[in-house]
Specification:
- The chain is of the alpha+beta class.
- The chain has one domain.
- It contains 5 helices and 10 strands; from the N terminus they run E-E-E-E-H-H-H-E-E-H-E-E-E-E-H.
- A 5-stranded mixed β-sheet has the order 3-10-9-8-7. The protein has a 3-stranded antiparallel β-sheet with strand order 4-5-6. The protein has a two-stranded antiparallel sheet with strand order 1-2.
- Strand 7 and strand 8 (161-167) form a beta hairpin.
- Helix 3 (89-103) crosses helix 5.
- Mean pLDDT is 90; it is low at 1-19.
Length: 224
């Protein structure tokens, strides 16, 4: 569950979590030991410059001018991972500089979103966290992943989305479901904890490295 507060130009979301004794679902978790945490930068080919309350402007090309994307190599053109962006901070900063110039004096925070995902190529699945837009909003979950003792659970939810996690002795279990559709399960998987945490360390390290580079070049940090 979440509340929001205005912090200058950026909206910061307070994520609240709690432990749950309901973990029977972990017995059904499918193993996905290649499960990889990724922190992605969300880019756009166009940027909205109009009134956020004007539907006509929202649909008009005049208020959605194109913006040149970075050219560095990445698997998903609009969602580069932090690891893919390392070493390309100049290009990424140029992109965000253009976005900021187009949206001045209005700077809607959705132009600077991050997105956490848990991805398993072997199972062709991705668990998304659509309500977490900054590192600060991911931090409680990341801390839980690293520090939670065996037998501890995690839960957070918002409109159309709920994530449960549970730690057993050597594994982490993840249940992604829709609370607005009778808790319909999208995926229920588990991964070996040591290797998962190693990949998590890399993703977070790279994200912080890229953000530090962007902050130095742009003089702002809506990502942390």
């Amino acid at each position: 569950m979440a509340g929001e507060e205005d912090a200058g130009n950026w909206v910061v979301r307070e994520v609240r979590t709690y432990h749950s004794d309901d973990h029977e679902w972990t017995a059904r978790s499918a193993p996905a030991d290649d499960l990889t945490p990724r922190i992605r930068f969300l880019l756009k080919g166009t940027v909205y410059t109009g009134d956020p309350n004007d539907g006509a402007q929202f649909k008009s090309a005049a208020f959605n001018p194109p913006v040149s994307l970075p050219t560095f190599s990445r698997q998903d053109d609009l969602r580069p991972t932090s690891s893919e962006a390392v070493g390309h901070e100049d290009e990424l900063a140029d992109y965000y500089r253009r976005v900021t110039e187009l949206t001045q004096p209005r700077q809607p925070e959705y132009n600077y979103w991050l997105r956490l995902s848990l991805e398993s190529p072997s199972r062709s699945l991705e668990i998304g966290f659509p309500w977490w837009d900054r590192l600060a909003e991911m931090s409680e979950f990341i801390t839980w992943l690293r520090r939670a003792p065996a037998g501890a659970g995690f839960l957070d939810q918002d409109q159309g989305w709920m994530i449960r996690a549970f730690r057993t002795e050597g594994r982490l279990h993840f249940l992604d479901c829709d609370p607005d559709d009778d808790d319909r399960e999208r995926s229920n998987i588990s991964a070996g904890r040591p290797d998962f945490l190693h990949r998590l360390e890399r993703a977070e390290h790279d994200a912080r490295l890229v953000i530090a580079g962007l902050r130095a070049r742009l003089g702002m940090d809506p990502w942390s």
